[in-house]
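From: lab user (bench 3)
To: helpdesk
Subject: output format question, protein + iron/sulfur cluster

Hello, I'm new to running complex predictions and I'm not sure whether the block I got back is the full result or only part of it. Here's what I submitted:
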Amino acid sequence: MEESCNQCGKCCLHMRRYMIIERNISDSQYFCHFTLTKERFFARLGGDDLARFRDRNSMSGYPDSCPFLRQLEDKSFHCTIYSSRPEHCRKFFCA
Ligand code: SF4
Ligand code: SF4
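Helpdesk reply: Thanks, we reran it on our side. This is the complete output you should expect:
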C-alpha cells in the first residue's frame, strides 16, 4: 500500500505466499521474511493495530491475503504493520 491509496487492498490480497512470519520476538513484534524480494525485517504492531492483528475474523474470506492485512468496518483494508512494512510495500505505486 502506498501513502495516498484508497485502501482497496488489491495489492495485498494475494501476498500470503510471500509474507512468512518466521518467529515471534514478542507479542507485538515478529521476525519476517518477504520472499518476493528476500527481505528480512521486524514487523511491529501497537495499539489498535495489535488488536486488529489478533482478530482474524475480518479476513476469513481472503485466505491468500498478507497475514498483516485486516478489513475494517467500512470495508476498506488496513495494513497493521504500516510503519514497519517491507521495502516492496513502501515503494509500491499502483496505476
Ligand atoms: S496501493 Fe493501490 S492497490 Fe494497493 S490498496 Fe492502495 S489503491 Fe489498492
Ligand atoms: S505488509 Fe502491509 S502493505 Fe505489505 S503486503 Fe502486507 S498488508 Fe500489504
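A quick orientation on your result: Residues 19-91 form one domain. Let us know if anything else is unclear.
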